[in-house]
Amino acid sequence: MKLTILGGGGFRVPLVYGALLADRGEGRVTRVVLHDLDDGRLNAVARVLAEQAAAVPDAPAVTATTDLDEALRGADFVFSAIRVGGLRGRADDERVALAEGVLGQETVGAGGIAYGLRTVPVAVDIARRVARLAPDAWVINFTNPAGLVTEAMSRHLGDRVIGICDSPVGLGRRIARVLGADPKEAWIDYVGLNHLGWVRGLRVAGRDELPRLLADPGLLGSFEEGKLFGADWLRSLGAVPNEYLHYYYFNRETVRAYQEAEKTRGAFLAEQQARFYEEMKRPGAAALTAWDRTRAEREATYMAENRESAGAGERDADDLSGGYEKVALALMRAIARDERTTLILNVRNRGTLAALDADAVIEAPCLADANGAHPVSVDPLPGHATGLVCTVKGVEREVLAAAASGSRATAVKAFALHPLVDSVNVARRLVEGYTAVHPGLAYLR
Ligand code: G6P
Ligand code: MN
Hints:
- It contains 20 helices and 13 strands.
- Helix 1 packs parallel to helix 2, helix 4 runs antiparallel to helix 5 and helix 13 packs across helix 16.
- The protein binds 6-O-phosphono-alpha-D-glucopyranose and manganese (II) ion.
C-alpha cells in the first residue's frame, strides 16, 4: 500500500507517520512517498521520520521527491496537506485584512478567501494529475480552506476526494468527556461546513445528553468551547458551535485581539517554524526532540488570541494532541480494509442539507468503508445556521468561479459577499492589497 503525502516537508507529517507506525494491521501502508517543492523541508522531515522509525520493525519505507507526477504514480492514497505561499503567505493574509479592520484568519473571512484564491488553482492541477496518473487512488485532503479545496478537487475526482479536519472530532471528544461518556459510544450530531458546524446533540444509548450539559453552568464552564462562547450563548443557541464560529459570534473582539497581538498567528509560526527547519540543517541535531518541542509550543499557543479575548485561559492538557492524523488513519483503514466506521468528514452533500445543492461539499457524519464516505441523514439546521452556511457556501462558489475564470470582479464579489467583510469598498481594497503581495494571485485580471 503506497501513500503519497503532498506537502511532505510539512511540519505535521510526523504526526501522520507516527499514526502509520502504530498501525500493525493487515493491508497497512508499507510505502510513504513525500512530495514537496522544497528539498530542504523534505530533508528536515525525513530526518524526524527516520528517528521515529528507528525502533520500529517493518516501519513503512520513506522516500522523498520534488517530482509531483513521480510521487503520484501508483499511489493508493494521496494525502494533500500543502500550504500555497507558505507561512509568510499566511502572515500576509492576516496583515492585509487586519489593516482593513477585518479578520485575516487562514480559513475564515477575508484571509480564508485570499488563501482559497491562491490554493484552488494548485489543488485543481493536483486533482487533474491524480485523475490521470492514479485514477484509482483516494485523495484525503487536509489542505485549507479544507471544505472549499475539497469541493474544487471533487469537480475532477468526484467522491474519490474526501476532506478531513480535527476540529469536529476534538469538539465531540470534549463534550463527551465533560458528560462522562465514552466518545467511542457516543453519536455526535454535528453538521455544517468545514470550520462552520454545530453539535446539536450527543446521544448515548439513544438518549440525548446535550441538554444535561446545556443546563449545567458548571459543566459548561469546564471545557474549551464553553469558556470561549460562554454558558449563556451556548444555552441561547441550544448547540455547541465549532470553535471557528468564535470569529463570527464575537467578530469585533477577535479582530481587536488580533490587531493588538504582538504578532499574528501566521507571523509567529513563520518564525517558529523557520527556526526548526534551520536547526534541521545542522548535522547531528536531535531531530525528533526538536520537532516535539516545536510541536508542543505550536499546540499550546493555538487560538491563543481568541481564548485571551474571551478570558478562557490556557488550553486543557487533554486538548493538546490535535488528532487529524487519527481521522486520516481511520479513514484509510475503513477504505483499504472495509472496516466500516462513522467519521465526520467533508464530502458532497447529496441532499443531506436541503438548502444546499447535491455537489456542495459539507462537513457531516459519514459512513466510511471500502466504497468511500457517504453522509448520513441529519436533522435540518435552524434558520440562522442555514443562513450562515448558505452565505458562506455562496462565497466559496465565487472563489471557485474566480479561480476558474481569473476574473478580478468575481474575486471582489467573493470578498464583498462574506458576512465578515462589511463593505464592497473594503472588498475592493482587499483584492488590491492581496494581489499586490501575493504572486500566486497574478492570474486575477
Ligand atoms: C486546527 C484546524 C486546522 C488548522 C490548524 C491550525 O487543527 O482544524 O484546519 O490548520 O488548526 O493550527 P496552527 O497551529 O497552524 O494555527
Ligand atoms: Mn481544520
